[in-house]
Amino acid sequence: MNKFMKIALAVALAAVMCVSAVADTAVPSIQQKAAPEVSTATATDADGNEVTIDAAEVVVTAFSDADSLDADAQEALTSAYEQILESESLEELVATIPEGHTAAYLFDHTAAYLFDISVTGDAAAVLAAGGSVTVTMEVNLGGASEVAVLHNYSGSNWREEPSEVVGTNKLQVTFTSTSPFVITVSSDSTILVSDPAEGVVGDTGVDVSGATTSSAMPYVVGGVACIVVAGVLLIVANKKKVK
Length: 243
Known about the structure:
Layout: H1 3-25, E1 37-44, E2 50-51, E3 58-62, H2 71-86, E4 109-119, H3 121-128, E5 132-138, E6 147-154, E7 157-161, E8 163-167, E9 170-175, E10 179-186, H4 217-242
Antiparallel strand pairs: 1-2, 1-5, 3-4, 4-10, 5-9, 6-7, 6-10, 8-9
Helix pairs in contact: 1-4
């Protein structure tokens, strides 16, 4: 094998490895996302009184760490994931549209984070007695103009929980029971890589710490590599003709 062919093959191999690396690391789906970090937590009892709780009493487990949960929680989280994938749009999941939203507002949303929430200590006691817990999560929202938190509270039943963006990449959520939750973001978020209107609602969230990442990047890299390889092969062919 002559020198030029060796160079061509080396470039092609590098391109394949580069495309694979980009595909595996630059665009992680909700299957790979780390759990949002809880920075603060407060509770309100059934009578409306504030109860002091520790943020550590709220445990958030990402879908990627589902095997660390007990069997029932694993099954619930897996079921939530499957329901998201099977839906043509997220609006199908929620039976009751919250006040102030149009009936199709979730159609423009894509699932970005999926996780289980469980509580311990005083937080668990508050929920058991009919109260609520409010947490502030540190999570990349990608500058989305709309954010929603959907709660798969039982079987195939979902509802939107009260939530509010309270700072850059900080989301406040209030809930009265635990189990699977999904954070959804509108299509203008920089953590999305495909159009939710195409029916892809489960695997399009991309955590790139605020940077914009395009799903076209692997193809661009591969295309450039192909051009380089073609150029090398053309040089080889021309040299053969000269001889």
